Amino acid sequence: MEEEKQGAPEKSNAATPETKTEPVAATEPFQQNAEMQKTPEGDFIDEKLRLYYEINLEAPNKIARREFGFGFQKKIDIRHKAFANLQELSRFISTYSPRFISYSSAIYNFPAARPIERKERLGVELIFDLDGSPRNEKCGHKKSAGTLFCKKCLENVRQDAITLKEDFLISEFGFKKEEIWQKFSGSKGFHIHIQNEKAMELSSNARRELAFYISASELGAQNFLKREEIAKRKFKYSGPDSTSKGWKGRLHREMKRLLLASDFSQMKRFISKRDAENISKNPVHYINELDNGNWGIFSKPESTIQKFVDRKKKEIGIEVDASVTFDLHRLIRLENSIHGDTGFVAKKIEDNLFPEFDPTIHALPFKKGETTIIPNDEIKIEFQNQSFRLEGGKRTEVPTNLALLILCKKRGKLA
Ligand SMILES: [Zn+2]
Q1: 3-state secondary structure of 205
Q2: Least enclosed by CB within 10 Å: which of 6, 63, 224, 310?
Q3: Measuring CA to CA, how many Å separate 186 from each of 67, 160, 217?
Q4: With contact defined as beta carbons under 8 Å apart, do 251 and 240 qualify?
């Protein structure tokens, strides 16, 4: 991993300086909250959030060094808040009932200070945000009426998150498994946090490079192919081989798989018809050459590898929201807080549960309770291991967790 001195956070020499927290007056007016129209549904959501936070609120590590932000209508309406401990945070939340709770990936000497330069940044957690939106456009869920939550879309993001962890963070960048943890975003994706002292010091530029590398958004043939003139107008093309790591290794493996399968229809997308015919006659020879990094086996190596890269980055590039990774002052959802647009808990997920984590079972704020609602239109959902098909306009008793999702999504009213 590349580290840059420039732009790296300054280290403070001060020994454990006292954390300054702005005193939170109980009467502090929040314009955003005051302007919110009171509705029975809004009151219901506020009440449920209050109940949940009475027992479930958890502090992030180094709570006193974090800046907090809160949202009432938007995700973040106020920020630059700081709390010395969980009790202070808890008091604030029960007073103002925010719908969204976020904290800084950075740790500061003075997290509440403004402007940002006065906070004195000490380090920033490395975080990747996967919400998978672009690839999910292919999912047909938008066409199927009544979908409230798409498990197929979440599955795509989960696969990306697992690849990110295993192929990139652990295998390629050398982070330890124990340094990485994940949470559900509370909506459509996952956040991957890395707790590593060295990573805390990465500059914004180094983080940007990491995010771009993982998504392969700026990779092309020039990153993978070396051309050498070995005789007049005769070139040698060296590319990824059987020992390559990272993206090079990925490309080599994918091309080899294609040659092994002799999949003519797939191959035609990247190589000429004549090449494909030659390969299918003697695949072992071509595979051996490819293992040695000889991409000159293709008649047009540059265009072959470029087409291949373009295709593969769509398939195996990880869609990350790069700005979450490189913005050193970013606020990120507090683990185990409730996402105000869904009522789901932004659950911290144990490694062994990650492959089967299902928000409609594992990210629910309440163990029991029923609530009667009237959906605006038809709703179909698998929830708490049950199939629901709710009719629009009809009073229906549903689990309170589901009522919360429906009301947060503004897809129904209280009966
Ligand atoms: Zn979907």
Answers
A1: helix
A2: 6
A3: 20, 17, 26
A4: yes
**CA 145–ligand 1 middle distance (angstroms):** 12
Reported pTM: 0.83
- Reply yes or no on whether the pLDDT at 153 is more than 60: yes
The Cα–Cα gap between 332 and 183 comes to 11
Q: Give the integer Cα–Cα distance in Å for 35 and 218.
A: 44
Q: What is the DSSP string of 284-301?
A: HHHHHHHHTTBGGGSSSH
Predicted confidence (pLDDT) at residue 240 exceeds the cutoff of 90: yes
**pLDDT (tens digit per residue) in 196-211:** 999 999 999 999 999 9
What pLDDT does residue 12 have?
39
Domains of the chain: 31-215+321-365 (3.90.920.10), 221-316 (no CATH), 369-415 (3.40.5.50)
Neighbouring residues of 118: CB distance < 8 A, sequence distance ≥ 6: 110
Do 386 and 404 contact (CB within 8 A), yes or no?
no
Q: Residue 128 Cα, ligand 1 centroid: separation in angstroms?
A: 21
Residues with CB under 5 A from ligand 1 (ion): 139, 141, 150, 152-153
| Gap from CA of 155 to ligand 1 centroid (Å) | 9
Distances (CA, A) of 277 to 254, 265, 286, 301: 19, 11, 12, 16
What separation in Å is there between the alpha carbon of 192 and the centre of ligand 1? 21
Q: How many CB atoms lie within 10 A of CB 103?
A: 27
Those residues whose C-beta lies under 8 Å from the C-beta of residue 229, and which sit 6 or more positions away, are 235, 236
Q: Check residue 336 and report its DSSP letter.
A: T
